Amino acid sequence: MRAQRVAPGQRQSAAGVVATYAALLLAALVTLVPFVLAVITAFTPKLQFAREGLTIPSPPTLDNFAALGNLRLDFTQAFWVTVAVVIVVSIGQIVFSITAAYAFARMRFPGREALFWVVLATLMVPQAVTVIPLYVMFAGMGLPGTFEGLVLPYLFGSSYAVFLLREQFRQISEELIDAMRIDGQGTLGILTRLVVPLSRPTLVTLLLITVVTHWNNFMWPLMIGRNRIHVLTTAAASLQEQYSNNTTLVMAAAVLAMLPLIVLFVIFQRQIVRSIRITGFR
Questions:
Q1: Residues 236, 249: contact at Cβ < 8 Å?
Q2: I need a surface site. Which of 51, 78, 170, 209 has the fewest CB within 10 A?
């Protein structure tokens, strides 16, 4: 039997596949190695790390995590403050973004298009441009160092969410909405019984984006907190400044900060992949 010849195009295609997987493997290693090292360091006894440096802990210990509860900076309180901020902001953004997007998509009022483009234009403005005027305004109201100061700037929806939901709502058939009106449903009934159920994948996507964004938010909590109220990001930064020589303690704080997001990814990994398609990041 004659050996089958491999066409040059097939060889190039196979080489391209190998190169692609090699590049993806390298990118995965570069991304994951810092997290793995942080986890190893967090479970390493302090004395062992000081003596041997980065090494496999023998045995692994939870002392570094327990030490976080005994600090002058209450890291546990910062964790629960972060949870509260994320919950309040997520609920506010979803509710207000839904109502605003529905108004732009389905209601008719003077200046609707112009107002929508003004809202959309705010996506082009960097946060660094607005954070100082916003702080001056909040300082005049006496809100620095308060929970209200942490959540109010983000509570009433976001331009990105309004834009994405408006496009989603415009795809819903007008005949379905008219049928709901004939059945006696008002705007609230149409939203809760028709529009929201049909837009569930997009809403879950927005919820995940909101949770991750505000769990990792740093600049605004750093400014408005004034070292009187901390979230996880600012608490971890303060720990790094105060305990720069205690690497295992700092890494334990970092692991505790990223653990909820890892759990969130494990639970909603399929939805996160779908969200990449919905938001257009390809």
A1: no
A2: 51
Mutual orientation of helices 232-242 and 247-267 as an angle, nearest 10°? 160
Q: Which tens digit of pLDDT belongs to each residue from 69-78? A: 777 777 888 8
The per-residue DSSP string of 98-113 comes to: HHHHHHHHH---TTHH
Kindly give the interhelix angle for 147-155 and 75-106, rounded to the nearest 10 degrees: 20
| CA–CA distances in Å: residue 274 to residues 87, 197, 203, 278 | 23, 17, 12, 6
CA distances from 270 to 5, 32, 49, 159, 265 (A): 41, 20, 38, 25, 9
Amino acid present at 275: S
Q: Shortest CA distance to 229 belongs to which of 78, 88, 109?
A: 78
Residue 127 lies in a domain: yes
CA–CA distance, 215 with 90 (Å, rounded to integer) = 11
Task: Give pLDDT, residue 31.
Answer: 86
Exposed e or buried b for every residue in 156-183, given b needs 16+ CB within 10 A? Answer: ebbbbbbbbbbebbeebeeeebeebeee
Domain membership flag for residue 209: yes
CA quadruple 99, 105, 106, 112: dihedral positive or negative? positive
Is there a domain that residue 234 lies in?
Answer: yes
CA angle, residues 7, 13, 16, in degrees to nearest 5: 145
Identify whether the C-beta of residue 272 lies closer than 8 Å to the C-beta of residue 207: no
The rounded distance, in Å, linking the Cα atoms of 165 and 103 is: 11
pLDDT in tens, 206-233: 888 899 889 989 889 988 987 788 898 8
50 within domain boundaries: no
